[in-house]
Amino acid sequence: MSRSLFLLLALTLVACDGRKSETVPSAELGVESRLPVRMGVVLTHLRIAATDLEKARGLMGTQKLPEAEGMAFMYDNDTQMRFWMKDTPLDLDIAFVDKTGVILEIKTMLAGDTDTTVSSSDRVRFTVEMSAGWFAHFGVKVGDKVELEDMRHALTARGFEARRYLP
Asked: Reduced to 3 DSSP states, what percent helix, strand and coil does the chain have, rounded to the nearest 5?
């Protein structure tokens, strides 16, 4: 009995020793983690979707996005992008971005719309979805840049090799 009590007390003291806990290893950060990324001069917090499953799920089922939060969809090749809003209950703006971080175009997608939204360009490397109207409200426009260094840090924090997605 006293041995068990001593062990319990020792574990309690170790758990409450006042030291800061270590940073969570990057490989453990999931798609729900919000990571800081600047677009134009605006700081946002983006979820990073890099796996096929993460990209397929996207923001499905998301009822509301806080003002400066969204999701980036990362691809390892330039291509023409196609998105739809199946099971997504809120309107979204989508920015199509090239590999240098330049926003090529911004489109609005309506909640639940199963029609495909297609980029005009075949040079799209990644996209960023924010609440509908966000880009216009914050003055982020076509020609502005998404900070690639922030995107690299976000990818690395999620445990992905950034150079797979960005030059």
From this structure: 25, 30, 45
Q: Is the distance from CB of 123 to CB of 78 less than 8 angstroms?
A: yes
pLDDT in tens, 16-52: 333 333 333 344 588 889 999 999 999 999 999 999 9
> Taking the alpha carbons of 30, 31, 33, 38 in that order, is the dihedral positive or negative?
positive
Choose the CATH number for 2-164 among 3.20.190.10, 3.10.20.30, 2.60.120.1140, 3.40.630.70: 2.60.120.1140
CA distance 22 to 20: 6
User: Residue 29 corresponds to which tokens in the numbers above?
Assistant: 């950060």
String of DSSP letters for 23-69:
PPPGGG--TT--EEEEETTEEEEEEEE-SHHHHHHTTTT-----TTE
- Of 8-17, 83-92, 134-143, 155-164, the one with minimum mean pLDDT is 8-17
Question: How far is 14 from 116, CA to CA, in rounded Å?
Answer: 55
Which CA distances in Å does 35 have to 16, 85, 153?
29, 23, 9
C-alpha count within 13 angstroms, C-beta hemisphere, residue 150: 20
| pTM for the model | 0.82
| Res 87 pLDDT > 80 | yes
